[in-house]
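Reading a protein record of the kind used here takes only a little practice. Think of the row as the fold of the chain written in a discrete alphabet. With that in mind, consider the following protein and its fold in token form:
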Amino acid sequence: MKKNILLISVFAIGTVLVSSCSNDSSDDLSGIDGLDEVTYTNTVKSIIDNNCISCHAATPINGAPMSLTTYENVKDAVQNRGLLDRISRAQGEPGMMPNGGTRLPQAVIDQVFAWNAQGLNE
């Protein structure tokens, strides 16, 4: 008798758990609706500061051809100097940035691309 009650209880709990773990709409999911507005100030500046400024400082070093210390510098690098190409290259590919480092995570690269697609807003 106790075995039957235990079996029925396990079955009932399993049914409740399985039936309650469903999603009728992708609108119910959080965090998949795309990126919010990406601006230089709220997103891109910290990416550049954390990954590029060591070489692309006010006075560039280690062969860096330009500074990336201001909004205008970074905007120009995206529009005219191939920044998106350089950060998108595969690990170890010639010209990949950050130079000599590890390729940025794709989610970070996607934020810079989103900034460009959204109009390079400051």
User: Anything to note?
Assistant: The radius of gyration is 24 Å. Residues 14-33 have pLDDT under 50 and may be disordered.
